[in-house]
């Protein structure tokens, strides 16, 4: 709620917000009229966005050059280790073994000075034109799963091929995020375009029911983020 109030006050003062994830967007929209804001998407399919009402926000795009293969969680973990909060940077993109990140210009100096390695491997930061990834399309692995219901625990159990008891353990340890927040209940029914993440497994988007089976199960479509 604090972040929502802070971003709301920034808009009232003619400033843009910081980066907002899906949960932040929903909370802030609940406090605003549609004519009180515009939404800035760093690239067409971006998940993290910025609200503004006057000037387009100042955002920078960097390529992270390295000779060592990296994972999304490696880059994210480094950002957190540097005490860089989620609202200071946008999407991390991995495309054909190239790595990109959007940041707010206001902390450019800190970022360039401190973000010098990932997983003990040296990196080079190259600033790109902000429109460089305008034609980028997010890549997914498309999964089709036979499940008994659209409950999130049922679908996660099928994805990682484990028991319900193991899913309960992950739930208790807060290893599952649902729409950018910790999962509140294991029997949560997924809706089309809901996202969920499983620590050390990956992030997924639920795309809905494809069809029913003769045995009263359903076939659902789930996209795994690459």
Could you walk me through the main structural features you see in this protein, from its secondary elements to its overall organization?
The protein is α+β, with helices and mostly antiparallel strands. The protein has 6 helices and 14 strands. The longest helix has 11 residues, at 2-12. It is globular. The protein starts with a helix and ends with a strand. The mean pLDDT is 92.
Contiguous low-pLDDT stretches (5 residues minimum) are none
Broad shape: globular
C-alpha termini separation: 31 Å
Give the proportion of residues in helices. 10-25%
Number of helices: 6
Strand percent estimate: 25-35%
Provide the spatial order of strands within the biggest beta sheet: 9-14-13-12-10-11
The value of Rg in angstroms is: 19 Å
Describe the sheet with the most strands: 6 strands, antiparallel
- One letter per element, helices H and strands E, the order comes to HHEEEHEEHEEEEHHEEEEE
Helix/strand-derived category reads: alpha+beta
Tally of DSSP β-strands: 14
Q: Quaternary state, please?
A: single chain
Mean pLDDT: 92
């Amino acid at each position: 709620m604090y972040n929502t109030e802070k971003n709301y006050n920034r808009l009232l003062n003619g400033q843009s917000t910081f980066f907002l994830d899906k949960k932040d967007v929903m909370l802030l929209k609940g406090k605003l009229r549609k004519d009180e804001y515009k939404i800035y998407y760093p690239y067409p399919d971006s998940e993290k966005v910025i609200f503004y009402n006057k000037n387009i926000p100042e955002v920078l795009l960097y390529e992270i050059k390295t000779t060592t293969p990296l994972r999304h969680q490696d880059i994210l973990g480094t950002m957190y280790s540097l005490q860089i909060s989620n609202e200071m940077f946008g999407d991390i993109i991995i495309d054909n073994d190239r790595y990109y990140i959007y940041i707010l210009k206001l902390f450019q100096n800190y970022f360039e000075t401190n973000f010098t390695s990932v997983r003990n491997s040296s990196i080079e930061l190259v600033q790109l034109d902000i429109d460089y990834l305008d034609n980028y399309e997010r890549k997914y692995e498309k999964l089709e799963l036979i499940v008994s219901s659209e409950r999130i625990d049922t679908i996660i159990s099928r994805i990682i091929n484990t028991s319900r008891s193991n899913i309960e353990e992950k739930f208790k340890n807060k290893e599952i995020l649902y729409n950018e927040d910790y999962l509140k209940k294991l029997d949560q029914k997924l809706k089309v375009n809901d996202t969920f993440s499983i620590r050390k497994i990956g992030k997924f988007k639920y795309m809905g029911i494809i069809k029913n089976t003769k045995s009263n199960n359903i076939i659902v479509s789930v996209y795994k983020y690459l």
